[in-house]
Structures are given as structure tokens and as C-alpha cells.
Amino acid sequence: RFDASPPLLQRLLTGAGRRAVHAVEEVDFEIGRGSTFALVGESGCGKSTIARTIAGIQPPTTGAVSFMGVDISGFRTRHAALPYRRNLQMIFQDPYASLNPRWRVGRIVAEPILTHKLMTSGAALTERIAELLSVVGLSPADARKFPHQFSGGQRQRISIARALASNPAFIVCDEPTSALDVSVQAQILNLMKKLQRELGLTYLLISHNLAVVAHMADRMGVMYLGRLVEQGDAGQILERPLHPYTRLLLDTVPDPRAPNRSRARLSGEVPSPLAPPSGCAFHPRCPLANERCSREPPQPIRVGAAWVSCHAVEEGRLPSPTRENDQR
Ligand code: SF4
Ligand code: MG
């Protein structure tokens, strides 16, 4: 169960050596079974840290990752984590880097099956590999080839076949299409949607591409410097964002319906997590920042079905987006 009780909840804090770098702090979200939750934000905001923590690659220094009702961040041995790992797979940004170049595709796809002892070698395994390759749009004969013999899109199909091999419930997709040509991106995203429908998969989608998020996500969370600043229904956030950071993030994306509309600029770089700004971490870049913002970190408040961490939202001094658009 992923749903309400208990939720897929995480409170993550990562440390690097003696000087603690809090890559991610106080990030809580739930992902409903069979749905897609997208995490968006600029690079360095902590999205990949969350992906790696949930996937068990990087343990949290404190806090919990609850998966199907079990806190899985406390596993100390590979053996204890195995039943959970079977249910949770990952698709990475660069399919080539994540596929062993010396292994044939059949062996790559078989690996999770053998690791989790779902089958031993033999005719049934060969048949299962052929089935997995067909499911992702490849041919059973491709099992004998090596990764370098495929295009980028085909290699991502191989990664997806491998991710599906252990019959997982949940797949963490870290920028699954950002290394691919635009024309190929849509094919991979549509394949992912089809697989979700047919297999009831749950996705955590890490992406900085809002078009990808709009295409895929049911719910989304916006991250800034290791914190979730806004989360809620994806359609609603993309249509009517509340947090000033989300508004600027959306405004930097060209609107195909209004190509000449002047767009706001998201100025400046993401500050270093080694020296995060005081108060609201976004205040040096925020057009609505005031003295309180530089002093006091905003706490998440509920606005309709969304959660937003912003003093301006809480104080009701957020300009209405409709009025902003009229003035342009
Ligand atoms: Fe801007 Fe202040 Fe809201 Fe932070 S809390 S986003 S600085 S208005
Ligand atoms: Mg990343």
C-alpha cells in the first residue's frame, strides 16, 4: 500500500563529512499507488538526492523512507533490503552509463530476476527476457546484442525492461528522457504511461522539464535548495502556481500560445547548500521578499488542496496571476 495510511513519507537529511551539507531537509510527500508524483527544481536543488535515498543508494542521515508501510531506510544488510528492492526499481538519466557495456542485453535484463531469485537460468528465463523486450518495443533477438549497438532511445527501452524484470510496484525515474532527442522523448514517455496503465506502476519522476511533468504527473512537488516549497495537483500548480519560485520557474518556460509575451527572468544562481541564505532560502532571488523573509523560514501552509511555504502567500500579499497577465 502506498496510500494514506501509512504514507510514503520521508524526512531526509544528508550529511557530507563533518561539515553537514543538508542536501535535503524536511521534505514530506506521499505518492498514491498507480500515480505519478513529479519533483521539479533547478539542478542542485536536491531532487536526485531524494531519488537516490528512496532507491536505497544513499542512506538518509536521519529520518525515514516508508515504503508500503515499512521503514526501509533502516536496513543495514543487503539481504534485509532485498524484498523491498524487488519492488522498487530505478531508471536513470543516462541509459548508456547505467548499462554494463560488456554484457549482452539479455544478461542485463536478466540481472534483477537472478538477483531476486525469481527464476534460474533456462528456457523460462529466456522466454521472460523475450517478453520483457517485446513489452518495451524491442525484439527478442536484441537479447544477443550489446548496449553500444542501440540508439539512445533504444537503450532507455533496455533500462526500462531491466527495471520491469522483477515485477516492481514502484519505479524512480531520474530525468528519464533528458539525455534523448526531443522526438524520442515523447516515445519513451508514452511507453512509460502505457506501462503504468497496464501494470499499475507507481512513478516518482524527477525532472527539470515542465513539459515532461505536464505530460506525466498527477501530483508534483517543487523543490528549492533542498526543501519542498510547493506541492499539490500537477495540473493546478502548472495552471495557477502560488509560490513565487514556482511562478518564476513556470514563467521562464516559453508559452507556445503566446510566444511574444514578455517573460519574467529567474535571475541568479541557486545558492550553495554549504551557505544557504537565512530565513526563506529563496529570499535573495524573490521579487516579493521582505525583512521577515530574510529572518524567518516559512512553514508549509495548506491552500486548497496544495501545500505552500511562503510568507507572502500566508500574509495574502501575493499578486493575483490574472492581474499580472493583464498588465503585460
Ligand atoms: Fe519570497 Fe518571502 Fe515567500 Fe520566500 S517567503 S518565497 S522570500 S515572499
Ligand atoms: Mg540531478
TrEMBL record:
Keywords: ATP-binding, Nucleotide-binding, Transport
Source superkingdom: Bacteria
GO cellular component entries: plasma membrane
Membrane topology category: Peripheral membrane protein
Residue span of region Disordered: 253-274, 314-328
Location in or out of the cell: Cell inner membrane
An example Gene Ontology molecular-function term: ATP hydrolysis activity
GO biological process: peptide transport; transmembrane transport
UniProt-listed PROSITE patterns: ABC_TRANSPORTER_1, ABC_TRANSPORTER_2
Domain named ABC transporter: residues: 1-250
Membrane spanning residue stretches: none
Membership in a protein family: Belongs to the ABC transporter superfamily.
Name of this protein: ATP-binding cassette domain-containing protein
Organism of this sequence: Ancylobacter mangrovi
Lineage: Bacteria, Pseudomonadati, Pseudomonadota, Alphaproteobacteria, Hyphomicrobiales
